[in-house]
């Protein structure tokens, strides 16, 4: 997963935006004002914080302890930091980003969810 592909993926979701509330180097991807991904796209290795179901978070950390860890500076129960250094398949990273977006959308008010192009 390249930084460009990660950015394109994050922005491909309905109503997704990129903001820089912390500094010019840290991209925060949001939907309806709620964050679903946080990354420094120029960092090496590339890492991204993603929201995750707590049970799935534990399972993923156990299965990939070197590249999926509790979310750095985030709620450790609900966020993972995923290292995109080539160890994980791009398909898995894509699924994790999609899951993060979907979890955030699921937490939005019903009216906001209905305006989005997601089930």
Automatic annotation (TrEMBL):
Top-level division of the source organism's lineage: Bacteria
Protein name: MmcQ-like protein
